[in-house]
Amino acid sequence: SPSIVWLRDDLRLADNPALSAAIERGGPTLVVYLLDEDSPGARPLGGASRWWLHGSLRSLADDLAALGGRLTLRRGAASDVIPSLVAETGAGAVYWNRRYGALRDVDAALKVSLRADGLVVESFGASLLHEPWKITSGSGDPYRVFTPFWRACLAAGDPRPPLPAPASIDGLAAAGDDLDDWHLLPTRPDWAAGLREAWTPGEAGALDRLERFIDEGLPLYHRRDEPGIEATSRLSPHLRFGELSPHQVWARVHGPLEPAAAANRAKFLSEIGWREFSYSILFHQPELATVNVRRDFDAFPWGEPDPAELEAWRRGTTGIPIVDAGMRQLWTSGWMHNRVRMIVASLLTKNLLIDWRVGEQWFWDTLVDADEASNAASWQWVAGSGADAAPYFRVFNPVLQAERFDPDRAYVRRWVPEVDGPEYPRPIVDLAASRIEALAAYEAVKAAK
Ligand code: FAD
After folding, report:
1. Does residue 378's CB lie within 6 angstroms of at least one atom of ligand 1?
2. Measured in angstroms, how far is the CA atom of residue 342 from the centroid of ligand 1?
3. Residue 388 confidence (pLDDT)
4. Residue ranges of the alpha helices (H) in 213-369?
5. Which residue has its alpha carbon closest to ligand 1 atom 11?
6. Residue 107 near ligand 1, beta carbon < 6 Å
7. Which residue among 338, 340, 382 has the greatest number of ligand 1 atoms within 8 angstroms of its CB, and so is best to mutate?
8. Residue ranges per domain, the chain?
9. Residue with the nearest Cα to atom 25 of ligand 1?
10. Which residues have C-beta within 8 Å of that of residue 181, sequence separation ≥ 6?
11. Per-residue pLDDT tens digits of the chain, which is 449 residues long
12. Which residue puts its alpha carbon closest to atom 46 of ligand 1?
C-alpha cells in the first residue's frame, strides 16, 4: 500500500527521516504539504514568510519531480485532510517529522486515531540536534539558562549524521491545489523586489548559502556583531523552513575547514544552540508568543502605543540612525542583523514602553525567518520577561551600540543614505529620560514578586 509523507517545516529531500522511512517501506509515496490555518494553535504566516513558502514549495516540487516524485498541495485542518488522503489513496502508513509548539497536540491526536485505524504512523526528530525532552537538568527540569543548556547538549554527544537524499521516488499524487491559487505572493503593491534580490528559497539555495558562508563568512565570524559586514550565515530562513537541517550544518562545519574558519566553529555552533534553546522553551511553553515566561512580568505597565511613534519604528523614521537602518533592512530584505534586532527591540520595549508582543507581531509579518520559537523567545529575552533574559536594567543605548559595532557607519549609510542631511528627523524619544521611565516602570514587576 502507498505511504504518505506529510511535510511541514522540513521542505527538503536530504536528511529527511520521514521521507527516507517511506521510501524504505517500499510502494508508492505521496508527498503532501498542507496549508493549515484551521487547526487549533495554528498561527497564519506573515507576509514575508508566505513569500518564502511559495518559493520553497516551487523549488521542492521541481526537486521531487526530478526524482520521479510529486508534490500534492492541500489546504485545511490536518485532522480532516490527512484522514481523507488516507481514504483516497488507500495508504497504509503515514510519516512526518516532529513539531514542537502548540501544533504537536494536533499531531499526537492524529497519530492515535490513524493507528486505531490500523495504519503505521511514525514521527521523527529532524529539525533539532537534540529532542527537547532529552536535555534536562539533573533534577529533570528544563534548563532556564542558556550556558548549562548548551553544555548539556554538547555532553549528550554528536547528533546523528545527516541522511542522504533518496536516489529516486515512486511518486504518487492525489488531487490538490495549484500553488498559485494560494496567493502567497504579494500583488499590489509588490513589496517583494528586495526579497527576490536577497534570497533563493529552496534546498539548493540553502546548500549554496551554507557553502558560501563556510568560505567567506565563517572566517570572519568573530566579527558577527558588526552589521556592516557579512560575517553571519544568513541561514535563518532556510533553517526556519527546514530546507536545511541543523544536522547538515553540524556535519559540514565538522568537515574540512580553513584554519580561520575552524577557529570560529564552536562560536557558530553555539548560535545554532540558541535556536535549540528557543525550541526547548517553546516545547515547555507552547503559548510563548503571547504569555510571559516570567509571570511576574504580567504586572508590567505597558503603555498604550502612540500610533505615530509605533509607525516611525516600523518604517524606520525614528531619527535614531541604527534603529532606522535596521527597520529599513527588515522591510526591504525580510531580514535584520542580530545585533540590530536587539537594539530595535530594546528601543520599542524600553524607550517607547510598547508591549513586546506588538514588536513580535511586526517581526512575524516582515521577517523571512519568522520563527515561532526564536522570534518569541528573543523578544521576551530583550524585554526582560524571558528565560535567561538580559537583566532589565541593561537598556541598550542605540547611540553607543552604533559607535561600537558600526564605527565606520557603513551599515547606517547603506540603509539611511539621508542620515547626515537636513531632512533626517530628530529622535522621536529622549533616550536618557525614557530609560529612567523604563526603570521606574520595572518597579511594578519587582513589587509583584
Ligand atoms: P548566524 O549568526 O549565522 O547563526 C546561525 C543560525 O543560528 C541562525 O540562522 C539561526 O537559526 C540560529 N541563531 C543565531 N542566533 C540566534 C538567536 N539569538 N536565537 C535563536 N536562534 C539563533 N531568529 C530566527 O531564526 N527567527 C526569528 O524570528 C528571530 N527573531 C528574533 C527577534 C529578536 C528581537 C531577536 C533579538 C533575535 C531574533 N532571532 C530570530 C535570532 C537571530 O537574530 C537570528 O537567528 C539571526 O540574526 C539570523 O541570522 P544568521 O542566520 O546570519 O545567524
Report:
1. yes
2. 11
3. 86
4. 236-240, 246-253, 259-262, 265-284, 307-315, 321-333, 338-346, 356-366
5. 236
6. no
7. 338
8. 3-126, 128-161+203-284, 295-448
9. 236
10. none
11. 999 999 999 999 999 999 999 999 999 999 999 999 999 999 999 999 999 999 999 999 999 999 999 999 999 999 999 999 999 999 999 999 999 999 999 999 999 999 999 999 999 999 999 999 999 988 888 899 999 999 999 999 999 999 999 999 999 999 999 999 999 999 889 999 999 999 999 999 999 999 999 999 999 999 999 999 999 999 999 999 999 999 999 999 999 999 999 999 999 999 999 999 999 999 999 999 999 999 999 999 998 999 999 999 999 999 999 999 999 999 999 999 999 999 999 999 999 999 999 999 999 999 999 999 999 999 999 999 998 878 888 899 999 999 999 999 999 999 999 999 999 999 999 999 999 999 999 998 888 87
12. 338
What pLDDT is attached to residue 313?
98
What residue type is assigned to position 196 of the chain? Answer: R
264 Cβ below 6 A of ligand 1: no
For residue 100 the three cell numbers come to 514542537
142 bridge partner residues:
136
Q: Which atom of ligand 1 is nearest to the CA of 221?
A: 2
Residue nearest to atom 49 of ligand 1 (CA): 234
Query: How many angstroms separate the alpha carbon of residue 238 from the centre of ligand 1?
Result: 11
The closest-lying atom of ligand 1 relative to the alpha carbon of residue 233 is 3
| CATH classification for the domain delimited by 128-161+203-284, as one of 1.25.40.80, 1.10.260.40, 3.40.50.1820, 3.40.50.300 | 1.25.40.80
341 Cα–ligand 1 center, Å: 9
38 ligand 1 Cβ < 6 A: no
295-448: CATH architecture: Orthogonal Bundle (1.10)
Fold identical between 3-126 and 128-161+203-284?
no
**Which strands, in side-by-side order, build the sheet including 120-124?**
71-75, 29-35, 3-7, 93-97, 120-124
**Cα of 198 to ligand 1 centre, how many Å?**
17
> For the complex shown, is ipTM > 0.85?
yes
Single out the residue of 61, 82, 72, 62 nearest to residue 33, CA to CA: 72
CA distance 37 to 41: 9
- Whether the CB of 401 sits within 6 Å of ligand 1: no
Burial of residue 402 (CB within 10 Å: 0-12, 13-18, 19+) is: buried
The finding on whether 344 has its CB within 6 A of some atom of ligand 1 is no
Question: Could you give the CA distance from residue 398 to residue 7 in angstroms, rounded to a whole number?
Answer: 41
Question: Would you identify the CATH topology of the domain 3-126?
Answer: Rossmann fold (3.40.50)
Residue 356 in 3-state DSSP? helix
Closest ligand 1 atom to 370 CA: 28
The closest residue, in CA terms, to atom 32 on ligand 1 is: 375
